[in-house]
Model the fold of this input.
Amino acid sequence: MGVSVLKPGLATTVQDTGRPGYYNVGIPPSGSLDQYSSLAANMLVGNGDDAAVLECTYMGPELRFDQPATVAVAGADLPPLLNGEPRPTWESFAVGAGDVLSFGFLRSGARAYLAVSGGFDVPVALGSRSTYALGALGGHRGRALAAGDELPIGPAGGAAPRRAVPEALRRNHPKHREIRVMMGLYDHRLTDSARRAFLETEWRLTPVADRTGFRYRGAELEFRDRDAPFGAGSDPSNIVDAPYPIGSIQIPGGVEPIVLHRDAVSGGGYVMVGTVISADMDDVGQSAPNITTRFTEVDLDGALRARHERAARLDALREAVG
Amino acid sequence: MVSVRGRAARHSFGGDDHIYVELDEEMNLSANFKVMAITSTIGDRGIDGVIDICPANASYQVRFDPDAIEPRQLLAELESIEAEVGDGTGFDLRTTVVEVPVLYNDPWTRETLMRFRSHHQNPDGTDLEYAARINGFDSVEGFVAAHSGSPWFTSMVGFVAGLPFLFQMVPRERQLEVPKYLTPRTDTPRQTIGHGGCFGCVYSVRGAGGYQMFGITPAPIYDPTQTHPDFEDFLVFFKPGYIAKFEPIDRDGYDELTAQVEAREFRFKQAPVEFSLGGFLADPDGYNRGLMEALDGS
Amino acid sequence: MSVDIRSPLPGVFYRRPSPGSEPFVDVGSAVEPGTVVAIVEVMKQFFEVPAGTEGKIATVAVADAEMVDAGQVLFTVLPW
Done:
């Protein structure tokens, strides 16, 4: 009983709200990169917030349901097909035993979240079902799905009524994004003009964008000269290996900034010049290659206001759907 | 005697949910020990809203929930803990000294390093030959003797799950230094003994890497399945502050230990110790002999 | 009436299996639904794009090594 994977998609993983508390030994939080959409999908099928969903990146899987269930897809505009027939996103719908769920081409965004009533019931590892593939931890056997996998479904709380997220509370995925950052960490190591250029450049996301980090292209940035401190590498973008905040932005060699996400490497020897604020991490997670991005600077109070606005939006979602 | 360095800490918010603290721009054991003392104290305090406390080589980071604690209030609390800890010399670290068996110049890292010769400063030799030469040793054997002759302090665990950064516990003029590869490799065998800059490491998982490769240990250090005896309680072996001693083994020794690992019978030789920075700095070689006696008495 | 072959993924579009080799298809090539017509690279993975239709390649809509969006037209095909 559960779900059989006929085709795995490109990088489909089991995720939930994540695995906090182990970053000190190099195990990142993991979890859905777009938490808002992941939570919305769970609400649509009547699950609690911590139920595990499938994160489908760029290309959806093809799944056969071996039992009836209520499902919902939220996040990227990746159109679901039930036995080949179109079904809506941001709305729950019923599937029967033997039904096949597949997906059309991605229209916008990067990651769609598939929730099923009862949740995907893989074993809990260090308090979470999230997949951390680099460490072969959590999820389904510590890796992305493969054809032939069978995923168990947990007990559902009863037949969920059909629900939809109101239009105003759905995410949309523009081709250009403004991502808010708090500058700091080692931004003093950039020259004044490089710091300005970082904030003024229209960056383009490269295809090197996965759960670990998102790499952008657009300008070369210069670091101030310095005598390398003992233990730091010789390149001016090197530091003595240090912890990396989730969302921090490093620029190895002054080219191609990388925003670390929820499967971050926990530390390393590259200068970080700032950090994406917590409220905008979902937007980074929905960025697909080729979209343009400008990093705009906010201060701590601005970041906290944005965080409260995001929380208010989640409350409204709960009010409307949960 | 090496002096204890005093230097003002530098604090920065990493977004609205991290505080990043640099205690020193350069690597030294004093800064690292201060990191250990401060981060243990933060952990003991049990501050509401703190999610992760990450000690690193000469810096540390706290990840927190800004809905549970106001960021500036947490910053003030960290600053007061730093002031209390001072230079850390009053702090005794309860930790573990452990022996790590190493097959130097093994066939697996050798095969890997040969595949990535175009990424290396010294395409005509091995990583060990290069490291021995630039550190002024006449032979690889001399380099291996220095590498395995003194213990290493686990100054940070991370990059990927369970990977220890190791800092050699000898005065700076005797520390081995080797630059990283010119461009990173896309492959490194699991449990490779690596070296980059002044840091040693043990690769916990197979994957990309830029450190020089000197050998391999048969001992697992990360076990997500938690089926090896040393991993009953936790899937990561090395904790920040652990002290490691490399023990050279030959191929027969490697095969024997590998059989033990496969039978789920291998256990690290290890002993609990209290580490005092003041005691170490006063007489590094004498202090290290004491650590080795604790290990051999285990 | 021509039929479009679209990219199932965002990423980098490659017309050749490796640099220096012949393109998978060119204008005039005959394709069947399973014919590989291009590779799209994303997240260090290389995904083979099948024609999904049969006929003759009429146009190549994207230059080699250019970034494409998911759903972007890569080729048009004239059905037999």
